[in-house]
């Protein structure tokens, strides 16, 4: 059974992580979430659940405006061949969320560490970051250092990648 929002908040409390959560109507895309910018401060993200040719899984967590070239990303992250989106069924099984709710907080549901995390270096800076807390009807703000602590506590050491360092020929 996947972790619930309450399980997630308990994990934050157990780790001494302070967060702020704002409830809102369901949001499925970056464009929809941009309407909340006046009420939720900090950086916002796009989160991609991807797999390579050999079935290795990746969660790419990038600043919402980052240019991600899916045709070349595999070279930068050490994947086997080009990347494609992972199936919704596998996403639900491994991170306990459905499309539109993808979040690094879902890694609480991957204790075996099957998913490799690629984190935009900008999200590891000083500015607070925002993610869905396992559902797309809320947004949780967390300090970058606390996000890293959470990821490590779930057994996921993120690969930091500077998406702004590559000339854009974006797919996303």
Describe the structure.
The structure is a single chain. This protein is of the alpha/beta class and 172 residues long. Helices cover 22% and strands 22% of the residues. Strands 4-2-3-5-8 form a 5-stranded mixed β-sheet, with no helix packed on it. Strands 1-7-6 form a 3-stranded antiparallel β-sheet. The relative contact order is 0.24.
**Could you tell me the number of beta strands?**
8
Based on secondary structure, the structural category is alpha/beta
Radius of gyration: 15 Å
Query: What do the pLDDT scores average to?
Result: 90
The amount of helix comes to: 10-25%
User: Judging from the principal axes of the Cα atoms, what is the shape?
Assistant: globular
Which consecutive residue ranges, at least 5 long each, have pLDDT under 50? 167-172
**Strand arrangement, major sheet:** 4-2-3-5-8
Main pleated-sheet profile: 5 strands, mixed
Report the portion of residues in β strands.
15-25%
Distance linking N and C termini: 32 Å
**Helix count, per DSSP?**
5
- Secondary-structure element sequence? HEHEEHEHEEEHE
